[in-house]
Amino acid sequence: MQKDFHYYATYCAARIAGYSHAEGMEICYSAQLVDWCSRTFLARVKGPKAAATTQLQLELMEARTDLVGLQDITRIWASFHFLPYDLHAELKKASRRYRNKYRLICKPNGALVKDTVELAKGRGAQAAGIAMHVLADTWAHSGFAGTPSLVINNTGPYFFELLPNPERERPVRFRHSPGAPDDLEKGIYSNSVYQPSENTIMNLGHGRAGHLPDYSFARYKYLPAWGGYEVIVKDNPREYYLAFCQMVYAMAYLRGGAGDFALSTYATETVQPWEKEIREILEKRQLDACADWKALGERIADTPLEDFALEKYEREYLETPPEEKDSTFLGRFFLAAMAQKSMVTNRIFRSGSLLAGFSVDFGEKGFRGIRDYRKLLEFIREERDR
What we know:
Elements: H1 3-16, H2 21-33, H3 39-45, H4 57-61, H5 67-80, H6 96-102, H7 111-120, H8 124-140, H9 150-153, E1 159-163, E2 168-171, E3 173-175, E4 188-190, E5 219-222, E6 232-235, H10 236-254, H11 268-271, H12 275-283, H13 290-301, H14 314-319, H15 329-350, H16 362-365, H17 373-385
Parallel strand pairs: 3-4
Antiparallel strand pairs: 1-2, 1-5, 5-6
C-alpha cells in the first residue's frame, strides 16, 4: 500500500475506532513511518540500526545476497510488509528450501496478524501504527513473499487487468522505467527487471508486479508458480475495504476492547456511515488517493489534517539525552519496531526455517546477539515490573 492508505486512511480508521485527533495523528504517522525508517534515516537521527523497517532502493541495490544478506532482507520485509500467512504449511513432494519460501507467502488473517495486533496492545500509538501498517499490507501484498524468490514472486505473461464499465480483460504491459509514472489509461506499469537468479533483489516482494498491488482500484488475475499455475484473482477494492474495516476493529481492540483479537472480524457496522465514500475512493482509478482520503479524514474529524513530514520528530530525538531517548516519540517507535521484528523472526526460526536467521525469544531467554536489542530486553523487563 501507499501513503494514501497507510497515512490518511489509517487516520480515518483510527478516528472511527474512537481515537482522538492527536492520537490518530500519532498512529497514522507511525504507520507511514514504517515505509521510511531505513538505515539511512536511522543513521541521520543516530537511532538503533536494528530498528530498520524498510530498505531504500539504493540500500537494496547495495545489499548483499549471500546467506547473511538474504536473512537481513527477509527480517525486514517479512516482518513489516509481507507478513507470512502460514509458517507451518505442508507441501507434498517439495524440497525444504522451496517449502520454507512458500511458507513466507503473505495473506490476510494468518496467525501472525493476531500476534502482531496483540503484541501492540498497551504499547502506545507507535506500536499501534506499526501493527496497522503490517495488517493493511497483508491485504495488498497477498500472494507475494518478503524474501527474494523468482519461484514465488515472479509474474509471467499471463497477467490481466480486470476493468469495469464495461467489464473486460486487458493484458498488463510491464516495463522497467522507474522514473516514468504508470499509465492507467493504456495499462502500462513499471516493474523490476526480470533476472533468472532465484535470490536477486529484483525478485523481492511484488517488484515483478510493480505498484499494481498497491493501487486500491486494481483488479487483476495471474498464474503464480506457487499456486500450481491456477488463476489467482485479486479484487483490491473489495479487499482494501475489508482491510479498512479490520483496522477499525483492531484499533478498537487496541484502545481497550475486551477479550482476544479475533481474525476474520471486521467493524462493518461501525464503518457503515462512511461506506459509500470509502468505496468511491477505493474504486477511483488514480495513482495517488491522498487528497481524497485526506478530505474524508477532515470531514470525519471536522479539523484540518497535517501532511506527513518525515522530520517531524527528529529534533526531539536528537536533542534528548541518550538515557532518555527511549521515551521520545521516535524512541518508542524504534522499540516497537524491534519488538515486531523480533517476534516475527522468532516465529520463522521456530518453524524450522533459517531464512530470517537465528532468533531467541527475548521474553523467555533474555538477550543474545545484536547489541541494539538490549534496549528491547530492558523495555520488556520494565513492562513486567509494572
